[in-house]
Write a structure and sequence with these properties.
Elements lengths: L1 H22 L13 H18 E2 L2 E6 L4 E17 L2 E10 L4 E11 L2 E12 L2 E2 L6
Antiparallel strand pairs: 1-2, 2-3, 3-4, 4-5, 5-6, 6-7
């Protein structure tokens, strides 16, 4: 019995390692469940409108002060998660550049009277490596 367990460990361990390497790290975007209904829908809508209005020929251009260069990235996916940081609602989206680098951009949405306005994007991570910034 003990040899069967040892034998199973020898087979299962490499399979688990291979599976983790293939799937990569799991990323969970933050989400505040108290942001719901029309507010959630409108935050996502203003972010989507902002991205579309700033996209030219499928490319969003954004200056990255950390890399000191102009990024040219294409939208892959909007994230459903929304959080409140300071005066802003923050939601993010996945983008990719022409070389395949992956960018997670956070979009800042601020209430203005009875409207919500997306003011800008900030690079939150590059190829899964997070950057820290503070809005509070």
């Amino acid at each position: 019995m003990k040899s069967q367990i040892e034998q199973a460990k020898k087979v299962i361990a490499p399979l688990l390692l291979a599976l983790s390497l293939l799937t990569g790290p799991v990323a969970h975007a933050a989400d505040d469940p108290s942001i719901k209904g029309d507010l959630r829908t409108n935050i996502q809508a203003t972010m989507d409108t902002f991205i579309k209005s700033q996209t030219i020929d499928g490319t969003l251009r954004l200056y990255d002060p950390v890399e000191d260069k102009l990024l040219k990235v294409s939208l892959k996916k909007l994230h459903p998660g929304i959080v409140k940081k300071g005066d802003f609602y923050v939601s993010c989206a996945d983008f990719v550049d022409s070389k395949g680098r992956k960018y997670d951009l956070d979009f800042l949405v601020v209430p203005a009277g009875d409207k919500l306005i997306t003011t800008q994007a900030i690079v939150h991570s590059v190829d899964g490596k997070k950057r820290k910034y503070h809005l509070e």
